[in-house]
Amino acid sequence: MFCHITANWRGRPLTSYQVVIETIAATTTKTGLTIGAELDTGSYDLGISVTPAEFHALPITPNAFHGDWNYTLAPVAPRTPDALASTRRIDPDLTMMLTDPALTGMSRTAFEHLVAVSEPFWDAMAEAAFQRRFHRPRSYLHPKTSSVDHTQRLLAAILRRRRAVTVTFLAQLLSVNRTNLSIQYQDGKRLLDLHQILITPIPGSAARTLEQLHARATPTEARH
Description:
Helix 6 packs across helix 7 (about 150-160) and helix 7 (about 150-160) crosses helix 9 (about 180-195). By secondary structure, the protein is mostly helical. It has 3 domains: about 1-45, no CATH class; about 45-85, no CATH class; about 90-224, no CATH class. It has a two-stranded antiparallel sheet with strand order 1-2. The model is unreliable at about 80-85, about 135-145 and about 220-224 (pLDDT under 50). It has helices at about 1-10, 15-25, 50-55, 90-100, 100-105, 110-135, 150-160, 165-175, 180-195, 210-215, and strands at about 60, 70-75.
């Protein structure tokens, strides 16, 4: 279909939606191909990812000739996927420990507020960086583009800037790749600067073990 649309288009400047629709709808072939086109004025949420399980659950019927190129997508609700890909969740107890005000330098309420107001900025930064690199929206990439959610990314940026824990140990705690966490930390720093969040490093060496982390989370006066 698209090769015939391109041939019919012949480089005509697409100056408006109407020109696009008319160019597509006017495409025909000697063998009887006709194409219907109309403007979709609906509003759709950005950043929606489709998991492989959801994609394979779509009612798609391949054609006998090159079914990978030619197929029919039935206009009915998709069947329930056999096994939807689940998002890995961080242990709530671990999150509670890492959001200790002694480690983050802010109350849990303040941290939760920062997470809420900064997530749209993070999404915009990630989308812009991806398009600069791949010249296409992130939705075209495999949906599992990140192994941690926004709360954990922001928490990791704060804890590293606070020198509360080493990035290697933090990656182990979150069960993620150290390199991935380090890359996301750079964006986390920009986000903290954007929201003018002052981060004061904790004196001493960053925690490398769970025992050291517990000690840093416990106020000095409580240890005496």
